[in-house]
Structures are given as structure tokens and as C-alpha cells.
Write a structure and sequence with these properties.
single chain; mainly alpha; 6 helices; coiled coil
Length: 233
């Protein structure tokens, strides 16, 4: 099948309208435009099969002519009304292409901010879950120890009979002091664990930020190369 030569101005206008509507920036988006135009331009006796690359190169040629002294050639190729449509569409596309690097930078910055916020939210949720689990485990262990001490006291009381009020007071005092010491040790342990967890999460955040910065710089270099390539084409 012979390549499509874009024989009519209306073919170019249809292409430019799709570019204005879709704002393609990726290969698959250009392929979508090519598929649509292939169906639009085809007839029963003359099927048309376009490729995304061919559509992109045709648009670049039209933009080049529009920016250079060849603009008059565009005007001679169709009616006054068609030329006005062509001119309006090319002005819109030229502005879009010129602004594309700025738009991409804004999009990338917004994405980085969203990723950072998501990371902080995940860190906060992890800290809350860790603290909740640690608190629950500490309380459960404390209750078990209290029950064991109480059972031991009741057993001794049964064996020895009734104890005096002074002995009971001494037992309760000792029990209370022991409980305080145990809880203090648990709180110290909990505090140390939280400090270690905070240090670990802070280190992960630093590593993550370094990776994002590295990734952003790599993308910026790729964008600059892509723009330079398009300008040379």
C-alpha cells in the first residue's frame, strides 16, 4: 500500500484538530490519532492506514512551514477559509508545543509533592500502628502479672489462714511498688523502641528523597534531549 501523501488541506485540518483536542505527548497517543484518521480518510475503494510517527512528522512539517517564510505556501494550498482554519489551529499547537517543557516541569513537581505527602502519610500511619500495638502488648502483660501476684497472695492466705491487717497492708504496698517498677521499665523500653523507629523512618525518608531527586534529574535530562531532538527534526 502506497504511503498517504496528505493530498488535501482538509486532511491537514483534520489532523491538527485531533492534535488540539488530544494534546499528544506519547507514542501511543499519536497512534490513537493515526487510527482515528485512518478510519476517517478511508473509502471503500481507497483504504488508508496511517502511523503515529507519520502523523507526528506531518504536524512538525506544517508547524515548520507556519513559522518560516513558507507560510505563503500554506495559503496557496487551499481556500481562504481553509487557510484561516489552518492558521488558527497551528497557532494553538505552536503555543502548546512551546509551553510543553514548562507544563511537564509543573506536572513533575506536582507529582513529587503528591508522592512526598503520600510517604509522610504512610510513615505517620506506621508510627501510629506501631505505638498502638506496643501499648496493647504492654497493658496485656501488666494485667497478666497483676493476676499472677493476686493469685499467689490468695494462695498464701488460704494456707496460712487469716493474716493481720498489717500484713495485708505490707503486701499491697509491696505489690504496688513492684508494679510501679515494672511499668517504669516498660515505659523506658517503649521510649527506646520509639526512638529507634523514628531514626529508622527518618533514614528511609532521606534515602527516598535522594532517589526522587536523582529520578527527577534523570527525567529532566531526558526531556532536554527529547526537545533538542524535536527541534533538529
Amino acid at each position: 500500500m502506497a504511503p498517504f501523501r496528505w493530498p488535501k488541506v482538509e486532511n491537514d485540518i483534520a489532523l491538527l484538530k485531533e492534535i488540539v483536542a488530544r494534546r499528544p505527548s506519547k507514542a501511543d497517543e499519536w497512534e490513537d490519532i493515526a487510527e482515528f484518521l485512518s478510519s476517517l480518510f478511508s473509502t471503500d475503494n481507497n483504504p488508508v492506514v496511517l502511523k503515529g510517527r507519520g502523523c507526528r512528522e506531518r504536524s512538525e512539517l506544517l508547524i515548520k512551514k507556519f513559522k518560516s517564510e513558507e507560510r505563503k505556501a500554506l495559503k496557496r494550498s487551499g481556500t481562504e477559509e481553509e487557510y484561516d482554519d489552518l492558521k488558527s489551529l497551528l497557532e494553538d499547537i505552536t503555543t502548546f508545543v512551546d509551553d510543553m517543557p514548562v507544563v511537564n516541569v509543573v506536572k513533575q513537581k506536582k507529582k513529587e509533592e503528591q508522592d512526598k505527602a503520600k510517604g509522610l502519610a504512610m510513615r505517620k500511619a506506621a508510627m501510629e500502628t506501631y505505638t498502638k500495638n506496643l501499648y496493647s502488648a504492654t497493658n496485656s502483660q501488666g494485667q497478666e502479672e497483676d493476676e499472677e501476684l493476686f493469685s499467689a497472695g490468695c494462695s498464701k492466705k488460704t494456707k496460712r489462714g487469716r493474716t493481720g491487717s498489717s500484713q495485708m497492708l505490707s503486701y499491697l504496698t509491696t505489690k504496688h511498688e513492684n508494679n510501679i517498677k515494672v511499668k517504669e521499665r516498660k515505659l523506658d523500653l517503649k521510649k527506646r523502641r520509639l526512638q529507634l523507629e523514628e531514626k529508622r523512618l527518618a533514614l528511609e525518608e532521606i534515602k527516598w528523597n535522594m532517589m526522587m531527586t536523582l529520578h527527577g534529574n534523570t527525567q529532566d535530562d531526558s526531556k532536554d534531549e527529547g526537545i533538542a531532538f524535536l527541534k533538529k527534526s
